[in-house]
């Protein structure tokens, strides 16, 4: 059923905005990052960044407070072997989005790359083809079943370990040329903590790429879930109305990257259409993508009721191509100076 999902991926809009210390209008991602990086470095030298850092720390503290409330809501215990294999089969949306992120990161032969939250390793496997035999890609993910699927890829320059974005102590400082989080940041209870860790393991000049849902334009499946689970019968389950997946806004993402000491942030948005053959397939994609967190926190009987109600809402989005949802991706590339 899942493998026959009709999937269409369209880039309808791509915009790059230079969001930190803009100089001249950018000619493209490379020049945008280069200009911003130079200015950022200059500011560091001139010690002008302290005001910005102060402002951001305050925002980050507020944000951290908000995120602490989320910690209890996200479960890494709802994943199964089946969901892991299902993710490998249905994660075309995340994979295609990830390919566009890797393109912006301009990965070259011989580089050392860290894929944080690698899942079943599809994107890491592609990254390994970019770095070639003299390079190395390491993927980490806290879910053992996903790491087991990833390990079956068996490429000599690619390895996977169970690990957490918020604790990268197994890696030396300044040991990676590139690190990226594809569809991962919104799951992290301590987003700034993770970015600080990644900044530490990046070499000077190393690049961090991030791509995921946008808090400015939350995914339709999240809005529908909030609406359905706001009904009285789900109220005893706080995850029903809580913000389990914490998608940052563009402003928040840029602030986080700056607070982590990264420079030259070029943030961008992309839009795609996710098409599944029916509501059941859409629910399957969501179960696998959220490692069981979409409605898995509900007791069995309520879970079935919720899936029924969600399915009816999804069917409202049926076109002649299938059930379709717009997805606005928010991304950024930043540099360790
Ligand atoms: C939607 S999947 C994305 C997987 C992969 N990056 C991709 O592009 O297909 C989200 C991943 O985030 C991982 N994740 C959740 N919490 C994490 C954490 N604290 N540290 C690292 N990864 C985490 C999940 O285990 C899951 O594999």
From TrEMBL:
Transmembrane segments: none annotated. It comes from the Eukaryota. SUPFAM superfamilies: S-adenosyl-L-methionine-dependent methyltransferases. It comes from Periconia digitata. Residues 108-211 form the Methyltransferase domain. This is Methyltransferase domain-containing protein.
């Amino acid at each position: 059923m899942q493998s026959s999902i009709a999937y269409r991926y369209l880039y309808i809009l791509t915009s790059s905005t230079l969001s930190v210390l803009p100089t001249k209008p950018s000619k493209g991602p490379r020049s945008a990052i280069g200009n911003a990086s130079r200015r950022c470095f200059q500011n560091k030298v001139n010690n002008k960044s302290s005001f910005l850092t102060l402002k951001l720390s305050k925002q980050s503290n507020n944000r951290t407070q908000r995120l602490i409330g989320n910690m209890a809501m996200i479960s890494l215990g709802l994943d199964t072997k089946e969901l892991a294999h299902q993710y490998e089969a249905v994660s075309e949306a995340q994979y295609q989005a990830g390919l566009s992120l890797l393109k912006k990161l301009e990965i070259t032969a011989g580089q050392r790359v860290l894929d944080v939250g690698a899942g079943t390793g599809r994107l890491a496997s592609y990254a390994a083809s970019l770095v070639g035999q003299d390079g190395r890609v390491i993927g980490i993910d806290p879910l053992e079943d996903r790491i087991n699927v990833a390990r079956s890829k068996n490429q000599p320059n690619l390895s996977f370990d169970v690990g957490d974005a918020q604790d990268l102590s197994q890696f030396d400082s300044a040991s990676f040329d590139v690190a990226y989080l594809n569809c991962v940041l919104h799951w992290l209870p301590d987003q700034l903590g993770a970015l600080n860790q990644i900044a530490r393991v990046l070499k000077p000049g190393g690049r961090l790429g991030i791509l995921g849902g946008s808090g400015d334009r939350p995914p339709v499946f999240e809005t529908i879930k909030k609406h359905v689970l706001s009904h009285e019968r789900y109220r005893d389950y706080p995850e029903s109305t809580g913000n389990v997946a914490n998608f940052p806004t563009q402003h928040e993402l840029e602030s986080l990257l700056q607070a982590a000491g990264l420079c030259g942030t070029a943030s961008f948005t992309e839009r795609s259409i996710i098409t599944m053959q029916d509501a059941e397939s859409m629910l399957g994609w969501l179960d696998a993508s959220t490692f069981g967190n979409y409605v898995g926190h509900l007791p069995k009987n309520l879970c079935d009721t919720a899936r029924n109600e969600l399915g009816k809402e999804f069917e409202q989005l049926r076109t002649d191509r299938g059930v379709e949802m717009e997805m606005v991706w928010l991304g950024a590339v930043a540099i360790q100076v």
